[in-house]
Amino acid sequence: MTTPLKFAALIPAAGSGSRLGFGIPKAFVELHGKTLLQRAIENLSPLVDEVVIALPEGQDFDTSARKIVGGSTRQDSVFRLLQATEADFVLIHDAARPFLGQKVIERIKSRVVQSGAVTAALPATDTLVHTSGGFWGYLVDRSKTWAVQTPQAFRKNLILDAHLKALQEGFDATDDAGLANKYGANVELVLGDAKLFKVTTPADFELAEAFAQLWDRKKEDQA
Ligand code: C5P
Asked: Phi and psi at residue 126, in whole multiples of 5°?
Protein backbone atom coordinates (compact mmCIF):
# COMPACT_ATOMS: atom_id res chain seq x y z
CA MET A 1 0.00 0.00 0.00
CA THR A 2 1.34 3.45 -0.87
CA THR A 3 1.20 6.22 1.72
CA PRO A 4 -0.54 9.42 0.55
CA LEU A 5 1.78 12.25 -0.51
CA LYS A 6 2.04 15.02 2.06
CA PHE A 7 1.80 18.72 1.18
CA ALA A 8 2.99 21.61 3.34
CA ALA A 9 2.26 25.29 2.76
CA LEU A 10 5.24 27.45 3.70
CA ILE A 11 4.61 31.16 4.23
CA PRO A 12 7.60 33.49 4.56
CA ALA A 13 6.25 36.43 6.55
CA ALA A 14 9.40 37.75 8.20
CA GLY A 15 9.94 40.81 6.01
CA SER A 16 9.85 44.40 7.20
CA GLY A 17 7.48 45.58 4.45
CA SER A 18 9.13 49.00 4.42
CA ARG A 19 7.91 49.83 0.89
CA LEU A 20 4.35 49.83 2.20
CA GLY A 21 5.27 52.55 4.70
CA PHE A 22 3.10 51.35 7.63
CA GLY A 23 5.98 50.90 10.08
CA ILE A 24 5.00 47.29 10.86
CA PRO A 25 5.88 44.04 9.06
CA LYS A 26 3.70 43.76 5.97
CA ALA A 27 2.24 40.39 6.93
CA PHE A 28 0.64 42.05 9.98
CA VAL A 29 -1.08 44.80 8.04
CA GLU A 30 -4.87 44.39 8.11
CA LEU A 31 -7.06 44.38 5.03
CA HIS A 32 -10.74 44.80 5.81
CA GLY A 33 -10.17 43.64 9.41
CA LYS A 34 -7.93 40.65 8.73
CA THR A 35 -4.12 40.51 8.43
CA LEU A 36 -2.42 39.49 5.21
CA LEU A 37 -0.88 36.56 7.05
CA GLN A 38 -4.21 35.32 8.43
CA ARG A 39 -5.64 35.50 4.93
CA ALA A 40 -2.77 33.43 3.50
CA ILE A 41 -3.14 30.80 6.23
CA GLU A 42 -6.93 30.56 5.80
CA ASN A 43 -6.64 30.23 2.01
CA LEU A 44 -4.07 27.45 2.14
CA SER A 45 -4.90 25.40 5.22
CA PRO A 46 -7.99 23.58 3.81
CA LEU A 47 -5.89 22.14 0.96
CA VAL A 48 -2.63 21.09 2.65
CA ASP A 49 -1.55 18.78 5.47
CA GLU A 50 0.25 21.50 7.40
CA VAL A 51 1.00 25.23 7.29
CA VAL A 52 4.33 26.56 8.56
CA ILE A 53 4.98 30.30 8.81
CA ALA A 54 8.22 32.26 9.27
CA LEU A 55 7.85 35.30 11.53
CA PRO A 56 10.22 38.18 12.25
CA GLU A 57 12.40 37.58 15.32
CA GLY A 58 10.58 38.60 18.52
CA GLN A 59 7.16 38.72 16.84
CA ASP A 60 4.30 36.37 17.74
CA PHE A 61 1.07 35.66 15.90
CA ASP A 62 -2.08 34.01 17.18
CA THR A 63 -2.59 31.04 14.85
CA SER A 64 -2.90 27.28 14.85
CA ALA A 65 -0.22 27.13 12.09
CA ARG A 66 3.29 26.05 13.09
CA LYS A 67 5.61 29.03 13.65
CA ILE A 68 9.36 29.44 13.16
CA VAL A 69 11.68 32.45 13.26
CA GLY A 70 12.57 33.76 9.77
CA GLY A 71 15.98 34.83 8.50
CA SER A 72 17.50 38.09 7.32
CA THR A 73 16.37 37.59 3.69
CA ARG A 74 13.34 35.97 2.10
CA GLN A 75 15.58 33.21 0.79
CA ASP A 76 16.92 32.54 4.27
CA SER A 77 13.37 32.46 5.69
CA VAL A 78 12.30 29.93 3.05
CA PHE A 79 15.40 27.81 3.69
CA ARG A 80 14.46 27.63 7.37
CA LEU A 81 10.86 26.75 6.49
CA LEU A 82 12.08 23.93 4.24
CA GLN A 83 14.14 22.50 7.07
CA ALA A 84 11.09 22.63 9.35
CA THR A 85 8.84 20.30 7.32
CA GLU A 86 8.80 16.58 6.54
CA ALA A 87 6.28 16.95 3.69
CA ASP A 88 6.91 15.42 0.23
CA PHE A 89 5.80 18.60 -1.56
CA VAL A 90 5.87 22.25 -0.49
CA LEU A 91 3.76 25.18 -1.67
CA ILE A 92 5.64 28.39 -0.97
CA HIS A 93 3.40 31.44 -0.86
CA ASP A 94 4.06 35.08 0.05
CA ALA A 95 1.68 36.54 2.59
CA ALA A 96 1.83 39.65 0.41
CA ARG A 97 -0.63 37.99 -2.05
CA PRO A 98 -3.84 37.76 0.01
CA PHE A 99 -6.34 36.80 -2.70
CA LEU A 100 -5.38 33.19 -3.33
CA GLY A 101 -8.30 31.11 -4.54
CA GLN A 102 -8.79 27.37 -4.19
CA LYS A 103 -8.70 26.74 -7.95
CA VAL A 104 -5.14 28.07 -8.27
CA ILE A 105 -4.02 25.95 -5.30
CA GLU A 106 -5.62 22.87 -6.85
CA ARG A 107 -3.97 23.52 -10.24
CA ILE A 108 -0.57 23.96 -8.59
CA LYS A 109 -0.94 20.82 -6.47
CA SER A 110 -2.02 18.64 -9.36
CA ARG A 111 0.87 19.79 -11.61
CA VAL A 112 3.70 19.65 -9.06
CA VAL A 113 3.28 15.92 -8.54
CA GLN A 114 4.09 15.48 -12.28
CA SER A 115 6.65 18.24 -12.81
CA GLY A 116 8.42 18.54 -9.46
CA ALA A 117 8.68 22.33 -9.87
CA VAL A 118 5.86 24.74 -10.77
CA THR A 119 4.91 28.34 -10.28
CA ALA A 120 1.74 30.32 -10.71
CA ALA A 121 2.26 32.87 -13.47
CA LEU A 122 0.21 35.09 -15.79
CA PRO A 123 0.81 35.87 -19.46
CA ALA A 124 1.78 39.56 -19.75
CA THR A 125 -1.02 41.83 -20.95
CA ASP A 126 0.72 45.23 -20.88
CA THR A 127 3.17 46.28 -23.56
CA LEU A 128 6.61 45.58 -22.10
CA VAL A 129 9.66 47.69 -22.72
CA HIS A 130 13.26 47.74 -21.55
CA THR A 131 14.10 51.18 -20.24
CA SER A 132 17.19 53.11 -21.10
CA GLY A 133 17.84 56.00 -18.71
CA GLY A 134 14.12 56.58 -18.09
CA PHE A 135 13.32 56.50 -21.84
CA TRP A 136 11.92 53.85 -24.16
CA GLY A 137 14.76 51.45 -24.89
CA TYR A 138 13.37 48.51 -26.82
CA LEU A 139 10.27 46.34 -26.87
CA VAL A 140 10.16 42.96 -25.16
CA ASP A 141 8.30 40.22 -27.05
CA ARG A 142 5.14 40.09 -24.96
CA SER A 143 3.95 36.83 -26.49
CA LYS A 144 6.80 35.03 -24.71
CA THR A 145 6.57 36.87 -21.37
CA TRP A 146 4.77 35.81 -18.21
CA ALA A 147 4.67 37.55 -14.83
CA VAL A 148 5.66 35.15 -12.04
CA GLN A 149 3.47 34.91 -8.93
CA THR A 150 3.21 32.61 -5.93
CA PRO A 151 2.30 29.91 -4.90
CA GLN A 152 5.35 28.10 -6.19
CA ALA A 153 5.48 24.39 -5.48
CA PHE A 154 8.24 21.83 -5.51
CA ARG A 155 9.20 18.34 -4.58
CA LYS A 156 10.70 19.14 -1.18
CA ASN A 157 14.10 17.57 -1.84
CA LEU A 158 14.47 19.34 -5.18
CA ILE A 159 14.03 22.81 -3.70
CA LEU A 160 16.02 22.01 -0.57
CA ASP A 161 18.97 20.92 -2.76
CA ALA A 162 18.70 24.15 -4.78
CA HIS A 163 18.75 26.21 -1.57
CA LEU A 164 21.80 24.30 -0.29
CA LYS A 165 23.67 24.94 -3.56
CA ALA A 166 22.69 28.62 -3.50
CA LEU A 167 23.96 28.90 0.06
CA GLN A 168 27.32 27.34 -0.94
CA GLU A 169 27.68 29.67 -3.92
CA GLY A 170 26.27 32.80 -2.28
CA PHE A 171 23.59 33.03 -4.99
CA ASP A 172 20.58 35.25 -4.21
CA ALA A 173 17.29 34.87 -6.06
CA THR A 174 14.08 36.87 -5.68
CA ASP A 175 11.99 33.71 -5.66
CA ASP A 176 12.21 29.94 -5.37
CA ALA A 177 11.28 29.13 -8.96
CA GLY A 178 14.28 31.21 -10.06
CA LEU A 179 16.47 29.31 -7.65
CA ALA A 180 15.17 25.92 -8.79
CA ASN A 181 15.69 26.87 -12.43
CA LYS A 182 19.24 28.10 -11.77
CA TYR A 183 20.14 24.63 -10.46
CA GLY A 184 18.62 22.71 -13.35
CA ALA A 185 14.90 22.25 -12.64
CA ASN A 186 12.45 22.63 -15.52
CA VAL A 187 9.88 24.90 -13.86
CA GLU A 188 6.36 24.55 -15.26
CA LEU A 189 4.26 27.74 -15.52
CA VAL A 190 0.74 27.14 -14.23
CA LEU A 191 -1.98 29.72 -14.89
CA GLY A 192 -2.26 32.02 -11.87
CA ASP A 193 -4.81 34.79 -11.37
CA ALA A 194 -4.92 38.59 -11.72
CA LYS A 195 -6.36 38.64 -8.18
CA LEU A 196 -3.06 37.22 -6.94
CA PHE A 197 -1.37 40.63 -7.26
CA LYS A 198 1.29 41.42 -4.67
CA VAL A 199 0.63 44.13 -2.09
CA THR A 200 3.88 46.09 -2.19
CA THR A 201 3.15 49.81 -2.48
CA PRO A 202 0.53 52.08 -0.86
CA ALA A 203 -1.35 52.05 -4.20
CA ASP A 204 -1.51 48.22 -4.15
CA PHE A 205 -2.82 48.47 -0.60
CA GLU A 206 -5.65 50.81 -1.62
CA LEU A 207 -6.69 48.38 -4.36
CA ALA A 208 -6.46 45.42 -1.99
CA GLU A 209 -8.47 47.15 0.75
CA ALA A 210 -11.29 47.91 -1.68
CA PHE A 211 -11.25 44.41 -3.19
CA ALA A 212 -11.07 42.62 0.19
CA GLN A 213 -14.70 43.52 0.93
CA LEU A 214 -15.89 41.88 -2.27
CA TRP A 215 -13.63 38.84 -1.70
CA ASP A 216 -14.89 38.34 1.87
CA ARG A 217 -18.52 38.68 0.81
CA LYS A 218 -18.04 36.04 -1.90
CA LYS A 219 -16.44 33.69 0.64
CA GLU A 220 -19.43 34.10 2.95
CA ASP A 221 -21.74 33.31 0.02
CA GLN A 222 -19.79 30.08 -0.64
CA ALA A 223 -19.86 28.98 3.03
O1 C5P B 1 9.64 42.26 0.46
P2 C5P B 1 8.90 41.29 -0.39
O3 C5P B 1 7.46 41.70 -0.64
O4 C5P B 1 9.60 40.89 -1.64
O5 C5P B 1 8.83 39.96 0.49
C6 C5P B 1 8.21 38.80 0.00
C7 C5P B 1 7.83 37.91 1.17
O8 C5P B 1 9.01 37.42 1.83
C9 C5P B 1 6.99 38.65 2.21
O10 C5P B 1 5.86 37.85 2.55
C11 C5P B 1 7.97 38.83 3.36
O12 C5P B 1 7.36 38.82 4.64
C13 C5P B 1 8.91 37.62 3.21
N14 C5P B 1 10.24 37.84 3.82
C15 C5P B 1 10.70 36.94 4.82
N16 C5P B 1 11.91 37.14 5.43
C17 C5P B 1 12.68 38.21 5.09
C18 C5P B 1 12.24 39.11 4.07
C19 C5P B 1 11.01 38.89 3.44
O20 C5P B 1 10.00 35.98 5.16
N21 C5P B 1 13.83 38.41 5.73
From this structure: -75, 160
Residue-wise pLDDT for 16-70, tens only, equals 766 677 788 889 999 999 999 999 999 999 999 999 999 999 989 999 999 999 9
Decide: pTM greater than 0.85.
yes
Contact 150, 92 (CB under 8 A): yes
- CA distances for 158 relative to 20, 59, 132, 155, 174, angstroms: 33, 30, 37, 5, 18
Ligand 1 atom 11, closest CA: 15
Q: For the chain, how many structural domains are there in total?
A: 1
CATH number at residue 194: 3.90.550.10
Q: Which atom of ligand 1 is nearest to the CA of 36?
A: 10
Residue 47 placed within a domain: yes
